[in-house]
Amino acid sequence: MDQDYKPIDIDYFTQQIHSLILECKQSHNFDINLFVQFASKTRNQINNTSNSKQACFLIVIQLQKCLLQIFAQQFQNKPELDEFFDAFKEYETAAKYLNLACYHIFQNLSQKEKFIFWKIAVCKIIKDNIENIRSRIFTSLEDLLDQIYKKQESEYVHKVQEKELKQDRENLKKKFFNHLQILLGFSMNENLIQNDINVFDDLCQRLYKFIKNEYEQKFKRWSQVYSVKDYLCLVEREFEINEQLFSCLNNIQQFKSHYLNIFRIIYENLVFKYKDVVLKDERGFIGLLNEFFSQQDQFDEAVSGEIIQILRVYSRFQDQEQYFKDFKQKFQQFVRENIEQQYKKQTLHHELEKQKSKYKSLVKILGDIYDKFDNLIRMCFKESDNFNGRYDLEMIVQSELKLFFINLEQSIQLTLKLCDYVHDLMMQLAKSDDQSQIKDNQEEILKVQKCLLPSVKDFDYYLIINNYRLASRLLNYLIFFEKQHALYHLDNEQYILDQMKQFCGEKKLKKINKMISETKDLLNKKIAIEFREDLTEIILINKKKWPKLYNNDQNVFQELQIFKQQFITKRQNYNARENSIKIEFSDTLSFVEIYWSEVEKTLIINCVQAAILFLFNEDDDMRTLNEIAESLKLETHQVLFQLERLVAQKILWNDKDSYFLNNSQIEQEVKEPLIVIDHNIYENQQYMNEFKPLYDKTQDLKFQLDAFIMKNLKIEKQMNHTILFDLVSKKFYPIPMSNDKLKESLEWLIKNEYICRDQKEKSVYLYK
């Protein structure tokens, strides 16, 4: 038989609750099982009373009153920091457990959701004690934070002290962190927010002032005592401590702004104020960069580590231009000066003077500089998600290299124009018998040199180009001029050369003087053509390489070929024996440009390759490797090295060791009218990769394309591939921009982690 329950006595129920809470509080043991047992005992009684719904609301009210009565006095006594948070945790636990008990008791009622009252209870106790929290509790938290900071700077004598100090410090940090999390809970309580009470915002305003004052004082102390390295070590230590203390803010989106503000205050007062010291000190940014780049083969991890430390610290915030601007400017200035210094130190022109030394092209010199900067930047940002800082520094390096190329190119163009003009005047002079014109040309040359030579940025460069032009003229005198005329023109060359001493001194002209004297010696050995039945052709072959292509010598070799064919025809008419070719090595001639009239193509080749082609006559006779090597007086492997270049460019074709001129196929297979063959005349394969064009415009275009993609993605944050391709096509018009080029740049940016693909939509790119 079912038991009949009497209507519940609210006062009796309240007394039971009061006793339960008081017992738990006194024993400091809030066991959830006690509340569950209480709920089980009263559940049926509550649900079967005639006034159950009314009783529910009354019970909730009484529960809140019980909580406040039991805990109110403890809060009214204005407890200290630890006592306050201990009392609050007990209060909150009791409220949550009572809430759970009510849920079990009233779970069959339709209005059970209204009995989730613990947040209201928390709101009530905080609201009643808000002034005490804002005054005493906030002040106590500041004192606790101050203790942590001081413990961090404390020194120790023995290992035991070190261990105790570390343990004390960790205990304090743990306590602060736990208190902070409780206050965060206050700020996520909807009831408190509705009452315009945001405890954590109020705390942060206090902390901002405290932290600002703390690090202002530390800056004054530390900046007078520590070196740059030690100072920044302390800075990073402070960042690490505060990351541990305030990490709970960074994990909640709505509190991230407070987290960033705390670190911005530390940055501005401890780091930003110190930047002038870092930028000017001998062991600061520029001094360390100079030391790093002065190293040759060895790699000093200590120096690179200090540079990485500086950039790591100072690139932390870049949302304000002032933070990193000075570092970018100093870095840019250093990059610019370093490029010029490295170029002067390892300049191509000096290397060319050392025939047996390893050759370094301009591109390789600058490539080495870029690699060194690139490695340093990657090390600086290896473990960082700060892609803005890394990208800014990489763009500085690339733009400065580009600017250096442009300036050097302008200097080169001035030098080339000057050399070409003097060369043309000298050739006019050589071809004229008019003494007045000869005199006018000489005066014009001297005037031009006097006006323009001081404007030449790199005089060594001018001398090399001048040597090259002179070599072309000397070859012309040697082959096409009668002995007396040739000697006369050599005297003119010597006269012009003597006038250059005032600009560069006699020492730098020593080689040119030697070239002229060598030519005179060759000229004196030459037997006049009309007195000989067979001709010795002299082709001067340079063992060096120059990475720029010129066309001034085209006429020389065209005339040489015509002259050769005329002589062969003449000899054949007289049934004479075959013409012989003599090869002499000299330092006076570099590249040649030959127009191949049969296929309407121009060849840019080195002198060894030119000598090989001169061996093939109009009958397209086959030549074996041994025949070519014997004719050129070169080693077989040297000739083979050049033949492979010619075959690769389809100038020749081969059948095993036999080689044929490929004029029957090349017109169809090679569409470009200009054919440039690798100009390396070394036989060692290891040098092949070092020879690149001086100014590769495709590299410049790639740099512009990468920068344009980054600029747009930085603004839009994400872009579809099709839209990006349209923008790129319009930007670079009339330069044809293919989809493959765009993909190549995008893949490079993805590989280097500047951008990434959208995981869901692969055709969308995201700015990182």
Automatic annotation (TrEMBL):
Molecular function as annotated in GO: ubiquitin protein ligase binding
Single GO biological process annotation from the record: ubiquitin-dependent protein catabolic process
UniProt xrefs under SMART domains: Cullin_Nedd8
Signal peptide positions (record): none
Residue stretches making up the Cullin family profile domain: 413-647
Domain of life: Eukaryota
Similarity comment: Belongs to the cullin family.
Name recorded for this polypeptide: Cullin family profile domain-containing protein
Lineage per the UniProt record: Eukaryota, Sar, Alveolata, Ciliophora, Intramacronucleata
